[in-house]
């Protein structure tokens, strides 16, 4: 006959992560909803494994941590070759750089961040109708795109908006950020086309080689919202990853938390007023035959009482059935193609599959 204690223990339901994740997702109010509820400790689904938490403490040695390069685009007029070399150097080593004097009005930078923040801080009942996991939708508000696949959730919510090649109907973009999103997209395209010219020349190609491939036409804008986290040492804002696409243009606010992995360790990408953060994606690493490098990056959980906001635009080719691979001009007998050819559709499908088995996207397409 079993004891009452044993019976009580056996009756206690074990922690059911799948159930907890489903229940959180069904609230449709994201991490912001948890904060609004007044929680003092983060739910178990957000607690990351010990190995991840240990890795968060690994940074560059004190005194050795460099800053990612800053490139002044206004200098293109007087010393184009020098700017091209700056960008080439950054893209071929750390894979990240910041640009200043890019021509985007300061007021629009401020308004875009404020508008995205305003959406995330709408009353819950106004955010809920936009919350959806169907990737094909033009606008989706979501907490953690990989919520059901990841080992642990990240402390962040996101609004995602498809801007190209076929843009979402403007009426579908929430009114609170509609005007700013549309204006921001125009500016990103302008800046991206300039950057692609400089990156193309840095590869020894004609200025328009990358633009002619339409690498700015496929665009997805994401507005991330990182609320205050009551236990920032137990979770992350965004897990370590490399962006799959060609190029990412990021506008971040003053709070910080973005880190990039370098040979010296993890370094902070310090917010600069009016600067844009640019990073190389896996796709550009592949077609450049590794002349340019993508880099792993992450965002720490926000310990500030003020929410952190960032707006990223992922730039990709528009033709998903087109075959891509290392550019023929960048391969030779001495430098053979390091990657096989693929369609962009296969490339992105592979990125969103769980079965990567820990291998990076670039390793999957690497020639053996």
From TrEMBL:
Transmembrane segments: none annotated. Keywords: Dioxygenase, Iron, Metal-binding, Oxidoreductase. Residues 209-317 form the Fe2OG dioxygenase domain. Pfam families: 2OG-FeII_Oxy, DIOX_N. One of its GO terms (molecular function) is metal ion binding. It comes from the Eukaryota. Belongs to the iron/ascorbate-dependent oxidoreductase family. This is 2-oxoglutarate-dependent dioxygenase.
């Amino acid at each position: 006959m079993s004891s009452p204690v044993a019976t009580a223990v056996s009756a206690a339901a074990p922690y059911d992560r799948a159930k907890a994740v489903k229940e959180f997702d069904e609230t449709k109010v994201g991490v912001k909803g948890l904060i609004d509820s007044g929680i003092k400790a983060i739910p178990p689904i957000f607690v990351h494994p010990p190995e991840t938490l240990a890795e968060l403490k690994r940074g560059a040695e004190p005194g050795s941590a460099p800053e990612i390069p800053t490139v002044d685009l206004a200098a293109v007029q007087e010393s184009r070759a020098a700017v091209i070399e700056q960008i080439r150097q950054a893209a071929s080593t750390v894979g990240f750089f910041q640009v200043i004097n890019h021509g985007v009005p300061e007021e629009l930078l401020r308004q875009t961040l404020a508008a995205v923040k305003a959406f995330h801080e709408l009353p819950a009942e106004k955010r809920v109708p936009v919350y959806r996991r169907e990737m094909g939708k033009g606008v989706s508000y979501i907490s953690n795109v990989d919520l059901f696949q990841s080992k642990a959730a990240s402390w962040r919510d996101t609004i995602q908006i498809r801007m190209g090649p076929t843009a979402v109907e403007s009426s579908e973009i929430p009114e609170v950020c509609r005007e700013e999103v549309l204006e921001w997209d125009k500016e990103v395209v302008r800046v991206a086309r300039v950057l692609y010219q400089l990156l193309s020349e840095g590869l020894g190609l004609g200025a328009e080689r990358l633009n002619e491939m339409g690498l700015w036409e496929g665009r997805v804008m994401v507005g991330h919202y990182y609320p205050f986290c009551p236990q920032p040492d137990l979770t992350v804002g965004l897990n370590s990853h490399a962006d799959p696409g060609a190029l990412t243009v990021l506008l971040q606010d003053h709070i910080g938390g973005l880190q990039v992995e370098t040979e010296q360790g993890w370094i902070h990408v310090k917010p600069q007023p009016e600067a844009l953060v640019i990073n190389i994606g896996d796709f550009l690493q592949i077609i450049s035959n590794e002349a340019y490098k993508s880099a792993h990056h992450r965002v720490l959980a926000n310990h500030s009482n003020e929410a952190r906001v960032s707006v990223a635009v992922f730039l990709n080719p528009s033709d998903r059935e087109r075959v891509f691979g290392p550019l023929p001009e960048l391969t030779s007998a001495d430098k053979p193609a390091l990657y096989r050819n693929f369609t962009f559709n296969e490339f992105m499908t592979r990125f969103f599959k769980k079965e990567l088995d820990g291998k990076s996207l670039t390793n999957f397409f690497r020639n053996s």
